[in-house]
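Box 3.1. Reading complex inputs
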Amino acid sequence: MDRTSGLDRAHEHAVGWLASLDGRPVPPRADTEEVLARLGRDLQDGPIPPADVVDELAAACEPGLTAMPSGRFFGFVIGGTHPAALAVDWLVSSWDQNTGLRMLTPAHTAVEEVTEAWVVDLLGLPAGSAVGFVTGGTMANFTCLAAARDDVLRRAGWDVAERGLAGSPGVRVLVGAERHDTIDLALRYLGLGAPEPVAADDQGRIEPAALAAALDAGDGRPTIVCLQAGNVHSGAFDPFEEAVAAAHDAGAWVHVDGAFGLFAGASPRRRHLVAGAEQADSWATDAHKTLNVPYDCGLAIVRDRAALRAAMGMHGDYLILSEAGEPLDKVPEISRRGRAFPVWAVLRSLGRDGVADLVDGFCDHAAAFAEGIAAIEGAEVLNDVVFTQVCTAFGDDDRTRGVVDAMLAEGTAWTTGSRWHGRAVLRVSVSNWSTTVDDVAASLAALRRASGQ
Ligand SMILES: *Cc1c(COP(=O)(O)O)cnc(C)c1O
């Protein structure tokens, strides 16, 4: 069989899909049941040529696809895919490199090394920090918090790799009341149980005084403090200078969940939002959100390379530090795809200024949304729009939910319904490189119609 027999068809469907984005409704037109009916459930006995398989799948799935790469998709916090990253992602599958070992894939190891240094530099983090290329923000939090857990216990004289957690001094984990749920999930995976929430202010930022009080109550027990760069509802950033200093005074490891917000550090205009975050010990971010590479790509960044390797490496030993190390020592997986290739591609294509412009563009569009929504009668913007998130209500909960439903039914743009501070909200999240001023205007017009004006 010809190795490339399906690729031309895949290319054609991909180009057709991308060309359809401007004109098609953003929500899917078929639900799961309809796609199941189109697919059929029986696996036949004989072979089907790859090109026909590609055609069949594309035809069955097309109506069930959401136009997430559209410039009018403002749901959840989901980025688009930059063209350089998309093109290189095709190479990733074609090259099919298993990227765990240096000797096995020198190309990816080299690209990962360059990309690691670029990312750390762009985000304003300490030079020499290690970056593990994982599947997403959840696993980036997990990976960083594994390094944190082992390190604070090591400092208390307890080797987790050797002895496990049973019988250990235990770890206190302090989190802001509005941390992302995936912090709790990561802590569960790590056997650390539920964290202790610390009060947050009206924008969801951790209260430094409450954090200081909670730290004081710890009596020197091993402690991790999780801060946040980018609250999913408000986009707010924790007050890092004060919070990190207080945590470090108490001997805690400080982790920052910056799944989408850490990239504020790449923009001279927004850098002030993350001031002080660089003093932390670890940072989780997504490349598949603000940086616009395809799923699945998160970045687990740890200042102490040895601590990351001790937690994730095959040997679990803090002392194997001097050698160059293997790529698999920085991530939970052994086998994984070449995730650094698309990240390298988007950074190379945009350059420093382009990344700053990308971030600033999202923020400017968010500000335009806030202004446009505030001008709709009965609508209010509930957050200080400092970054990419706009959280709004259109009167009481029923009315707001009605607007969310009307937006989905109409299909011009996708906005998300959520709850924040006990209220139904409609949230707009801007994180796609292709969003234009016209997309924002068309989406605002749709919001006006959906709200009955
Ligand atoms: C999206 C998000 C996560 C989870 O990231 P995934 O890539 O979806 O696993 C964690 N924290 C914050 C603040 C997020 O926005």
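In summary: The chain has two domains: 5-67, 87-345.
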